[in-house]
């Protein structure tokens, strides 16, 4: 009883049964003698009906003499089937019979006539007579067959019964059809809850159920992707931590076994590994805070061009060493944004470091700042290795490298671009990467909302 399809079936069935009962009751009531006689009496009283005709007759002649002709034509003023079952008589104001009961004579064995009502006939506010209406029982058809009204009533009752039965069957079928997608959704939810994140439900049913099914599938897909990212993150973190820890453990074991001497050179190598570990843990901490929108930001109005120029200046020695031309292009007027100077500096540094890492000797890295459509735009363009099209959608993922064989020492930990995206989005901006293809360079574009206008210098 607590299942939805059972409740819907009961609701549909109850509604249909109520309609069938109402139809049956209406058929019985509407074909009953009382309703029929009340209708006919109303017709006699209606404007222009027999009572008005009789009043006009008395007003014109001043008496009831010759009124029988009017009563003889009464059948033409009423539906024939019903008029034949009425008996009409006319009495004057003193109750004397003017025209006796008019209609076919009472058949032997028939039920006695039954007076329905007495309708006053008034002329200029004075009652001049009464029209008496009596019901004449209709003659029984031969062989006891039902008359017309009884046949109508029986047909209506039969239709009500058939309709009620069909309604019950259709109600159960419709309720099952409506609830079937919900049952599949419940099964899918149980499967997802048990860890089967690849479960999808068919998108079928009404528009509302279709919307729920689409939302469920999107949720399941998101959970599956999040679980895959979580597993990849754990594997990548374990891999990134394993390398420096292995080096530390091996070198320390060698020192303990007197294989290596504990001199400054060996301590420096161990120190480098601890720096790698510290940088990796710090990057992971910042990335987690930024993605959770919990990274503290000191947002102030500042010139993005000035920030980019200062950040890029720290890479000039590295660019000279790698024989890469590093230039900064900024407009004469400040491009103001509302942001955290330290975090935006970190964004520029990560993008420039990434560009220098992938640009060979003789290449160029260009940092450009401009204002476009009310936004502050920062672009870092290089002429380096480029990015294959299939990698553009994942270039900002954590620990992602286009070259899987690239080592951590030469290619970084794979967190720089992920941190860039997290820091930019934390300040209300967005970032994107473009590349014509391998060997044709790449462009990283950061778009930040403007501060509402240019600052005055």
Describe the structure.
Helix content is 51%, strand content 17%. The protein folds into 3 domains: 4-144, no CATH class; 207-291, Signal transduction histidine kinase, dimerisation/phosphotransfer (DHp) domain (Helix Hairpins); 299-449, Heat Shock Protein 90 (2-Layer Sandwich), CATH 3.30.565.10. The chain is elongated. The two termini are 77 Å apart. By secondary structure, it is of the alpha+beta class. Strands 6-8-9-11-10 form a 5-stranded mixed β-sheet. Strands 2-1-4-3 form a 4-stranded antiparallel β-sheet. It has a two-stranded antiparallel ribbon with strand order 5-7. The chain is built from 13 helices and 11 strands.
* Count of distinct strands: 11
Order of helices and strands: HHHHHEEEEHHHEHHEEHEEHHEE
CATH superfamily of the largest domain: Histidine kinase-like ATPase, C-terminal domain
Tally of individual domains = 3
* Strand proportion: 15-25%
Q: What is the chains' assembly state?
A: single chain
CATH class of the largest domain: Alpha Beta
Number of helices: 13
Low-confidence stretches: 106-111, 405-411, 453-457
């Amino acid at each position: 009883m607590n299942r939805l399809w059972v409740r819907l079936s009961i609701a549909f069935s109850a509604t249909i049964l109520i309609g069938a009962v109402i139809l049956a009751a209406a058929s019985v009531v509407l074909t009953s003698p009382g309703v029929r006689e009340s209708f006919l009496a109303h017709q006699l009283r209606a404007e222009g009906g027999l009572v008005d005709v009789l009043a006009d007759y008395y007003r014109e002649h001043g008496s009831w003499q010759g009124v029988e002709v009017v009563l003889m034509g009464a059948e033409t003023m009423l539906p024939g089937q019903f008029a034949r079952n009425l008996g009409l008589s006319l009495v004057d104001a003193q109750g004397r019979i003017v025209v006796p009961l008019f209609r076919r004579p009472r058949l032997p064995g028939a039920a006695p006539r039954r007076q329905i009502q007495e309708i006053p006939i008034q002329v200029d506010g004075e009652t001049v007579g009464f029209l008496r209406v009596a019901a004449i029982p209709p003659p029984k058809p031969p062989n006891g067959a039902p008359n017309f009204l009884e046949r109508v009533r029986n047909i209506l009752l039969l239709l009500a019964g058939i309709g009620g039965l069909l309604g019950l069957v259709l109600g159960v079928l419709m309720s099952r059809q409506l609830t079937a997608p919900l049952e599949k959704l419940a099964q899918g939810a149980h499967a997802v809850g048990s860890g089967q994140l690849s479960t999808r439900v068919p998108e079928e049913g009404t528009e509302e159920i279709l919307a729920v099914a689409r939302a469920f599938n999107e949720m399941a897909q998101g959970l599956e992707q999040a679980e895959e990212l979580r597993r990849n993150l754990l594997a990548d973190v374990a891999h990134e931590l394993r390398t420096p820890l292995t080096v530390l453990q091996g070198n320390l074991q060698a020192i303990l076994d007197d294989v290596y001497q504990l001199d400054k050179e060996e301590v420096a190598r161990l120190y480098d590994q601890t720096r790698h570990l510290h940088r990796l843990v710090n990057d992971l901490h910042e990335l987690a805070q930024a993605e959770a929108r919990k990274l503290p930001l000191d947002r102030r109005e500042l010139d993005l061009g000035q920030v980019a120029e200062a950040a890029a200046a720290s890479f000039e020695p590295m660019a000279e060493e790698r024989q890469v031309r590093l230039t900064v292009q900024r407009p004469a007027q400040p491009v103001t944004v509302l942001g955290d100077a330290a975090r935006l500096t970190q964004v520029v540094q990560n993008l420039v470091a990434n560009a220098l890492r992938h640009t060979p000797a003789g290449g160029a890295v260009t940092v450009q700042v401009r204002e476009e459509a009310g936004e502050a735009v920062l672009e870092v363009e290089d002429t380096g290795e480029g990015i294959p099209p299939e990698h553009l959608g994942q270039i900002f993922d954590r620990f992602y490298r286009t070259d899987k064989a690239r080592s951590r020492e030469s290619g970084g930990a794979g967190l720089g671009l992920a941190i860039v995206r997290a820091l930019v989005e934390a300040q209300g901006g967005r970032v994107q990467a473009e590349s014509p293809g391998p060997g044709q360079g790449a462009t990283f574009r950061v778009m930040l909302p403007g501060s509402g206008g240019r600052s005055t210098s």
